[in-house]
Amino acid sequence: MKLKVKHILLGSALLLSGQACTDLTETPFDVIPTDQFGSTPQQQAALLGPLYSSLGDYFGRYAEFNTVTDEQVIPTRGGDWKDSDAWKRLKQHSWTPLGDDDKFNGMWTWCYNAITSINQQLNNPEITDVATKSELRALRAFYHYILLDHFRNVIIADKLGGDGPTQKTGAEVFAWIEKELKEVYPNLSETTGGAYYGRFNKYVADMTLAKLYINAEVYTGTPKWAEAKAECDIIINSGKYALSADFFSNFSTQNQSSKENILAVPYDASKRGGFNMNMRTLHYLSQLTYNTPQAPWNGYCTATEFYNSFKEGDNRKNMWIVGQQFSSDGKPLTDDGKPFIFTPEIPAFEMAAGPVARLAGARSQKYEIQRNGASNDQDNDFVIFRLGDAYLLRAEANLRLGKTADAIKDVNIIRERAGTTPVTTLTLDGLLAERGFEMAWEYTRRQDLIRFGQFNKAWQFKTASPVFRNIFPIPLSQLQLNPNLKQNPGY
């Protein structure tokens, strides 16, 4: 496998941090005396690598929680994926602080562990470069944005130590994130790609602010549509990014060259594993189709109604796998004597073991499925921010500001790339649907449904849920550790 530019930063940083490395063909970085390392801005920037490596957990954390939306289902197939009904509770919005503490605490500790590591480096007297410190603060603000979105009333961890950090309101956390990003913005780089691939530059900060502002009414009660539009304008008008002619090239196994992706998590099956959507969504016998080293787990599939919302002729519908499946040499496969045909229909959340259960639900191939790999992990980089989303966010901001013609223009730019018919009218419901077509399984859906007022409605396998479910409970483990924390309302 070729050595990709995207891995040079992470590879060198891992060497510096003392973690194991089995690839001894790369240039050794320990020839610099340790008492001299960090004396230049370039060396200080290299210390960022281990801090960015924590973003590798972004995919796994978000993948689990996507089942709370109307686009993803993890049904129980016989005894498979039963897991004490954890996936059922998430789907039905009936999760509890006690029964699901592992998932909530996993998201919480992932963010705060990363923030703590960032704070340790910000306190490192060897790091004096303003650009490096600004990049660290931007990354720290990003993790606070994730916490704000999921838990709302959280701790602002802007320093090390101290007695029992206090809990802040969503409005306070919002204001702090905004302030941090605005303060460091002038010192962030405008460089894209190369050494800045997978790192925070000005445009990643702009995209984080755009997400913050588009959801401002949810977070604080006060909308900031004009501010969201302004951030999207900066990104779109910068000329640094461009929509890929081929939508699916943004998610290919070698998608590090995409000009559309603004922030992606670098993965490599041999050097930095962790991206395994193939294993989560494919049928056990799909091993014979893609020649994977082990059988996939036959779990994640798309919700029937969501799949059916995609129109024929829309190229994006090809992100779903349905119909007869074949072995790698072209022979039709069977499952226990039944033709191996993925069907969009999921007859029940809990299904008896057998071919009907195993074949229920369209599967995802939005991220190209790697064939003949030596690992269960894949080389695809997971996309957090991309230009297509910026166009749709700007369209939404314009629509909410009453600038419908401008909103339609941006939506049609996206639809033209998808090969589908342009729209002549646009409503909020229509825009939410368009976001579903474009952003499916990119883990924006929960946030989108909440912002559009649709998260609490009934859908397949779920009755209407109360509004307090729009945010997750403060993890029980954290309430027990910090008496200053109070549980979110409703829990």
Written overview of the protein:
The structure is a single chain. 41% of the residues lie in helices and 6% in strands. The protein has a two-stranded antiparallel ribbon with strand order 1-4. It has a two-stranded parallel sheet with strand order 2-10. Strand 7 and strand 8 form a beta hairpin. Mean pLDDT is 92; it is low at 1-35. The chain has 491 residues and is mainly alpha-helical.
**Through-space gap between termini:** 49 Å
Q: Care to count the β-strands?
A: 12
Fraction in helix: 40-55%
CA-based gyration radius: 23 Å
On the 0 to 100 scale, the average pLDDT is 92
The main sheet orders its strands as 1-4
Record the SSE blueprint.
Elements: H1 6-16, H2 41-46, H3 49-53, H4 58-65, E1 72-73, E2 76-77, H5 86-92, H6 101-122, H7 130-151, H8 170-184, H9 202-214, H10 216-220, H11 225-237, E3 261-265, H12 277-281, H13 287-290, E4 301-302, H14 304-308, E5 320-321, E6 323-324, E7 334-335, E8 338-339, E9 341-342, E10 350-351, H15 355-359, E11 363-364, E12 382-386, H16 387-400, H17 404-417, H18 428-439, H19 445-451, H20 476-481
